[in-house]
Amino acid sequence: MIRWIKWLVCLAALLSLGGCWSSTELNDIAITMGLGVDVAEDGELLVSIQVVDSGEVSASKGTLGRSPVVLYQSKGKTVSEAIQRMSTISPRMIYNSHLRILVLSEALAKRGINDVLDYISRDRQFRTDFSVIISKNSRAEDTLKILTPIEQIPATQLFRALANSEKQWAPTVVVNFDDLIQMMVSGGQQPIVPGIIVIGDADKGSRRTNVTTSVPASRLKYIGLSVFKEDRLEGWLNETESRAYNFIRGNVVNSIGNLTCDDGKFLSLEVQRTQSKLVAKLEKDKPKLSVTLKVEANVAEVACQIELTKEEVIRKLEKKSEQMLKMIMMNTIKHVQQEYQSDIFGFGNEVHRHYPDYWKKLNGDWNTQFAQTPVEVRVETKIRQLGTVSESMDRLEHETTSKKGSEHYK
Fold this sequence. Notes:
Structural class: alpha/beta
Helix content: 25-40%
Shape: globular
Radius of gyration: 27 Å
Distance between the termini: 116 Å
Number of helices: 15
Oligomer: single chain
């Protein structure tokens, strides 16, 4: 009996070593890093995928001088049809689990992106942690064509540059696939998606020579945020408005703002922390909206004559900062209300959360109500540090020159 038990244990161990029944060998798949969708001339969808050439990006092997990525393209009435049709040109099975960036053309976004998003949300290969961007004034395929310096894989550069831009300057915000879907189905906040443009000739940018010079013939640049209503692109925010959006949402991690001194020169404040709070109240069956922003900043650069050691001077700078931020935030909100009638800020979520009965009365028409509702903006700025030098170089130079002049006069 004990002998039979031993045999059964050995058999169970052997079965557990069988491996994954559904496994696929690495050399049988084409790993997709970037995916772009355009509208073709005949109205069908043109799908482009940026696939890694593993032989070129491998650190253990010397390169053969080929491009580190290959762009496959195919058309179809749906995204799924186009991708399946790529099997006629790709020697390997398309594998989408490592997708880093989804690029949608401006023309497609104006037509509507529901169908594209539906396919991606249903396909089990996609992990939904990739970023979504809109190619402005160009096609998605042109964006994916460009070979980039520093990062061998262009899709990786697009992914990392977007995150870096959000953290360091704040004219953009990272919108993952999950974030986009959440904004589209919530009803209380309309979608925003960062935009990108191609600088230079896209065809030249697709050549290997684009990364063999210190000044590439073609570059990619993030340029702000696009405004959606439901699943359609309505328009764009410029750089100042895009930064104002991030202040309103409390997304700013680090940024720089310039203030004008009394002598007409500039002083720069580096934002270190922001905290934003959106508030919605209901009075006489009408909403009252407000946003309160708290900012902590340090003095980053002083190009004017100013006495930073005086408390009243610091208070004056804080007031100037508050006025400037309040102005750009109010202008951005009014522009979005008047031009797009789209609540991209999320005030609707606050109304829905606190006043569900009133929300039901709107019957899904919150955007119209939002466009007609004034928004009160409050800003509080605190300057924490002056840097390692308490006085400006301009002021120190002026004082030194004055002292030398007075000594010479004596």
